[in-house]
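Risk mitigation, structural track. In case the binding assays with iron/sulfur cluster fail to produce interpretable data, a predicted complex structure has been prepared as a fallback.
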Amino acid sequence: MSAISLYARRTDGFDERVAHAVAVLQSAAAEHAGRIVQATSLGAEDMVITDLIARHGLGISIATLDTGKLHLETMALIPRIEQRYGLAVDVYQPVAESVVHFVTMNGERAMYESMALRKACCAIRKLEPLARMLAGSSAWVTGLRREQSDNRGGVPFSGPDANGGSGGRIKFNPLADWSWADVWHYVAANDVPYNPLHDEFMPSIGCAPCTRAIAVGEPFRAGRWWWEDEKAKECGLHVKDAPVSEVSALGALR
Ligand code: SF4
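Fallback model:
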C-alpha cells in the first residue's frame, strides 16, 4: 500500500498552510539572499519544500548530506531532483579519514553498542559535514514539523538556531504546522518525487543501519535508533543542549 493512499488527506486549512509556508520561504529568501540553504534530508517533508522552492523560483540553494550509510533509494532522489526541477543539489560527505579511523577502531556496528558510539558516528557522518554545508550561510531551511515527536512540539516557523553560535544563524521551518496528511496530500496533488521506502512503513528515513519500518500505531520516529531510549532520538542536528563539539553544526537533517 502506498504512502499516498495511506496518509494523504485534505483537511481544513490546507490551502492556508501551503500559502503560509510559501510566505515563510519567500520572506526567508528575501532576507537572506545568497546566504540561505535548504538542508534536505530527502524525506517527504523536504521534498515538499524543494518543490515549493522550485515552483516559486525562490533563491534558496539545496544541499544534502551523504553519510555513506544511506539507502540506495534515498540517494536516487538526488538526480531525480536535478532532473525534475533543474536544481543542483550540493552533496556533503564526511571526512574519509575520520570514517575509516572510526570504523577501524569501533567496527561497522558500533552504533548499536552504546549511545556514545552512536553519537560519535553521527558527529563524524552528519554534524561535521553539516557544519561545512552551513558555513557562510546566514539561514537554513528544514522540514521539521511539530507533529513529528514530543521533542519537536515547539518548533517555530523561524527563529535563531536553538544551538546559538555561528553568528545568529536563523533556522526556518516552513512546514512547522503541517500534519503528515498535509505532507502527503501535497505530494499527491503535485506529483512530488518521494522515497519509495515511505511506501514500506518508514515515515522517517535516516541511515540504513539506524532506520526500520514502524508498526501501525507506533510513533512517527519509532523506527529511528529504536534500540535507544525515546528521549535520545535526535542526532544532535536539532538538539537544544548539544555539547560544544556539536554546537557549530547547528542543525537539522535526518
Ligand atoms: S544515523 Fe546511524 S549510521 Fe548514520 S551517522 Fe548516525 S549512527 Fe551513524
